[in-house]
Amino acid sequence: MSEGSKPRLLRALAGETLDRPPVWFMRQAGRSLPEYRELRTRAPDFIAFCHNPEMAAEATMQPMRRFPLDAAIVFADILLIPRALGQEVWFEAGEGPRLGELPSIESMADQIEASTGRLADIGETLSRVRAELEPDRTLIGFAGAPWTVATYMIEGRGSDRSGARTYAYQNPEKLDRLLDVLVESTARYLVMQAKSGAQVLKLFESWAEGLAEDVFERIVIKPHAAIIEKVRAAGIDTPFIGFPRGAGALVENYAAKVPVHAVALDTQASAALGQKIQAGGKTIQGALDNLLLRAGGPALDARVDALIEQWNGAPYIFNLGHGVLPDTPIEHIERTIRRVTGK
Question: 3-341 adopts what CATH topology?
Answer without folding.
Answer: TIM Barrel (3.20.20)
